[in-house]
Amino acid sequence: MSMPAMVPQYTAEEIRRFPDDRLRYEVIRGELFVTPAPGTRHQRAVLELARALAAYVEEHGIGEAIVAPYEVELADDTAVQPDVLVILGDRAAQLTPERLEGPPSLAVEVISFSSKRTDRLQKRALYMEVGVEEYWVVDCDQRHVERWRPGANAPDIRTDALAWHPRPEVPPLTIDLPTLFRRVWR
User: Cα–Cα distance between 42 and 63 in angstroms, integer?
Assistant: First the structure.
């Protein structure tokens, strides 16, 4: 009889001590995920989305947008780094000088070849389970955004415009996706 293989389990504290080697280290329920530094299109998409989200939440005084690398600790064995995240005012107390300790209001992942599976499966399940109000999976190759909300069995796939309406007292943010993807692919 053979012995089962032992798969190492990690904590958020352990991955914080990993080397700064341009790799992104994340841990979800003890499982380590390592991704290489992203490419140009990925970073252009992150920048465009972060600009739009930051301007919107600042203009309306409802929160803050932060870009990776930035840690979101969701449990002792779970720490991730969404490409862009938004913390609305009701979650501001979770924000520390080092990290966000709890779920963001909005998490955005721009997928790359090495992160497709993790972003669409493990991170989606995690974000919906811990109470992220909305999760966007941005696919630059397909030129669409998959919008996930808690309780959904399938994403709302947007190719034309993406409207985000986090608070009823402020108008929604509308992102023109064809324009976004033209900037990404320039």
Answer: 24
